[in-house]
Amino acid sequence: VVVITPTYSGCPAMETITADLRAALGDDGFSPVRVETVLEPAWTTDWMTEDGCRKLNEYGIAPPTGRAAAGPVALTLGVKCPRCNSLSTREMTHFGSTSCKSLWVCNDCLEPFDHFKVH
Fold it and tell me: Which of 68, 71, 97, 115 has the lowest CB atom count within 10 Å?
């Protein structure tokens, strides 16, 4: 049994992720494969490992900055450009290529990039 929790309860990629897991585990000799989706507790970026954040950055997606907060956060954390590492960046739109990301642009190298939202 494989248990997965989506980053958002309405994540449109869940069927693909489930199929990919079944295929990969089946290819490695595991059969039958059962994948369960669990929505509680809700997924949080706090579950991301340092290795996972590093891989996001290498792929060109700025990993989440900080930890999910139980209440309001009084400051705005800078988002580092995954291409040139500059903190001189700005959010273009809160809505990125997927609902778990926002679109940012670097003021130094001028490259746009996705930022994984903290939640």
Answer: 71
